[in-house]
Amino acid sequence: MTRNKRLLVMAGGTGGHVFPGLAVAKYLQQQGWEIRWLGTADRMEAELVPKHGIEIDFIKVKGLEVKVCLS
């Protein structure tokens, strides 16, 4: 029994993350891979990814507070 290769893409928020992820996902999809996407419901991937025929699941994401100390 042969199983298909699967990929979970986790990218979202901005085009700098979503468009490269879509390019890789579409290429691998054409090679027979099963693709799923993990993103957020309130960012660009929510509309864009399904338009490319890729199933998407949503998670809630909260930003991290980063403090930089240059001493």
TrEMBL record:
Residues 8-67 form the Glycosyltransferase family 28 N-terminal domain. It comes from the Bacteria. Pfam families: Glyco_transf_28. Coiled coil: none annotated. Gene3D superfamilies: Glycogen Phosphorylase B (3.40.50.2000). GO terms for biological process: carbohydrate derivative biosynthetic process; carbohydrate metabolic process. One of its GO terms (molecular function) is undecaprenyldiphospho-muramoylpentapeptide beta-N-acetylglucosaminyltransferase activity. Its EC number is 2.4.1.227. Keywords: Glycosyltransferase, Transferase. InterPro entries: GlycoTrans_28_N (IPR004276). This is UDP-N-acetylglucosamine-N-acetylmuramyl-(Pentapeptide) pyrophosphoryl-undecaprenol N-acetylglucosamine transferase.
